[in-house]
């Protein structure tokens, strides 16, 4: 099973195929490729009974079953098979350990951690000569710890993985860049500002041929400074990101909308409402074009946009009212009653100030219905 691609069984099936079983295996492989996983499970179980004297074939069938269980979200059953294969094979080749660890990643992070840790220790013990194989082991461990929300461990493993890539090897350039960005983002999650800035700035320096990664790094740094109420430091990163976004594959994507929102808030926070408006307007357009958008976030953006329209130098009360209503429409779809109550109070106040009795009563009724229901 050495060098098995867990999603491609062609080669492995061929290795264990013979005149007696080739028809059955070809049929099973076709079912697997088509994603007919329940059929794979039932037929594979039959074939394990039928060919129970062929240990290598049994292993391939069990692996196929493990993936099939994971694909239909039967994670416990998948993990049990992987645990069985991990426990029964002794001694076990490093390549098999890595394969089992990656497969376990689909269904049980803690099992994946245990298997991949063994694989990495085994590689270190024999002075594994393939640095990319070692790097991959550490990167998978980093990803596992990240999924388990063990950020300190994740950072440690990503850093260890990074040491196996070489600056003078062109093939390694993207991974070196990616890992600096990844580590920087994890430090951001830990609110370790200095470390996050160090790695994200390095990512920007390394991102010459990868403008999308440079954009992500600029925006991440801007958000980091913004979250620490240091908007003046955030501003130049937003400027640089927006310059690059217009000619990148990230135009009109979520990160474009987020960058525009951050820039809008930069001006909003300084009461430069006229300057904020075009950024809010464009951000809202993009958010509404995305397949998945946070209703809470969009609702808050509509509220800020409406406030700008209401209070800008030449107020546009009509358009402000429309956007306040858009905000309520979005926030009603969230599960945040406190936020919705506060927004309704602001909208009621807006229509009251404009002597729009009909709209005021409409939102008062919503407010009363909501508060009495709670």
Automatic annotation (TrEMBL):
Transmembrane segments: none annotated. InterPro entries: Bac_ResReg_Asp_Phosphatase, TPR-like_helical_dom_sf, TPR_rpt. Keywords: Cytoplasm, Repeat, TPR repeat. It is found in: Cytoplasm. TPR repeats lie at residues 177-210, 215-248, 257-290. GO terms for cellular component: cytoplasm. PANTHER family: TETRATRICOPEPTIDE REPEAT PROTEIN 29. Belongs to the Rap family. This is Aspartate phosphatase. It comes from Virgibacillus oceani.
């Amino acid at each position: 099973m050495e060098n098995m691609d867990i999603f491609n069984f062609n080669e492995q099936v061929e290795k264990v195929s013979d005149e007696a079983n080739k028809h059955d295996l070809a049929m099973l492989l076709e079912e697997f490729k088509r994603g007919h996983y329940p059929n794979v499970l039932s037929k594979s179980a039959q074939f394990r009974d039928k060919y129970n004297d062929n240990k290598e074939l049994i292993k391939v069938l069990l692996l196929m079953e493990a993936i099939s269980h994971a694909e239909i979200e039967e994670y416990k059953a998948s993990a049990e098979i992987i645990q069985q294969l991990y426990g029964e094979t002794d001694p076990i080749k490093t390549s098999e350990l890595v394969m089992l660890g990656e497969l376990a990643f689909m269904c049980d992070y803690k099992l994946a951690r245990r298997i991949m840790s063994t694989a990495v220790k085994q590689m270190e013990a024999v002075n594994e000569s393939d640095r990319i194989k070692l790097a991959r082991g550490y990167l998978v461990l980093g990803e596992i710890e990240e999924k388990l929300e063990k950020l300190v461990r994740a950072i440690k493993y990503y850093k260890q993985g990074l040491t196996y890539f070489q600056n003078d090897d062109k093939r390694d350039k993207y991974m070196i860049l990616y890992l600096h960005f990844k580590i920087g983002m994890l430090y951001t999650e830990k609110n370790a500002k200095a470390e996050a800035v160090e790695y994200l700035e390095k990512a920007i320096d390394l991102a010459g041929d990868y403008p999308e990664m440079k954009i992500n790094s600029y925006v991440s740094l801007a958000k980091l400074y913004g979250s620490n109420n240091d908007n003046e430091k955030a501003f130049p990163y937003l400027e640089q990101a927006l310059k690059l976004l217009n000619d990148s594959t990230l135009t009109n994507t979520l990160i474009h909308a987020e960058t525009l929102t951050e820039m809008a808030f930069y001006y909003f926070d300084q009461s430069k409402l006229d300057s904020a408006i075009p950024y809010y307007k464009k951000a809202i357009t993009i958010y509404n074009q995305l397949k998945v958008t946070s209703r809470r976030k969009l609702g808050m953006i509509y509220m800020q946009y409406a406030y700008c329209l209401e209070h800008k130098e030449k107020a546009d009360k009509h358009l402000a009212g429309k956007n306040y209503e858009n905000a309520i429409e979005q926030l009603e779809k969230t599960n945040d009653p406190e936020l919705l109550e506060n927004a309704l109070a602001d909208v009621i106040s807006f229509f009251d100030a404009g002597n729009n009795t009909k709209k005021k009563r409409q939102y008062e009724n919503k407010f009363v219905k909501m508060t009495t229901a709670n």
